[in-house]
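Q: Here's a chain of 145 amino acids. Please give me its 3D structure as tokens.
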Amino acid sequence: MSFDLPELDREKTKDAVESALLKYRMFKTIDVDEREAKVTASLSDMPRGQTNVTSDQTGDIAAYNIDAPAARKAYCEKVERAVKRLHPKERMLIQERYMKEDYVFDYVIYTQIMGISEGTYYKYRWKAFYKLALILNIAITKNNE
């Protein structure tokens, strides 16, 4: 019995992983504004009729205020667990380049932080992206047509 790793479309997989890491960074740095119930009624020229739908504005707002932050937290924890499973050099690359609040250029990472060549940096980055794509289930395989 053999298990072959899938051959991924490099560009599409890279874009998917980078967008997942950008989403992570946005969730970590931007807080959710809590919604509040309206206190005054809104004026409308249209007569209101029965729609057979009960509206619970307060309940909807409470559910949003609980569910939205919980979903963001769960997503961030999922990405953090995936990154923790990487090789230490790959983990450092991803954390320094994509998971910190400040945007850092690639050349700063490989020259000043990691002290490696540009080619080695991009090899580590592709290996990290490959693993993250499989772990996060966002891998895009090549179509054999």
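Q: Can you summarize the key feature?
A: Helices lie at 10-29, 57-84, 88-99, 106-113, 118-135.
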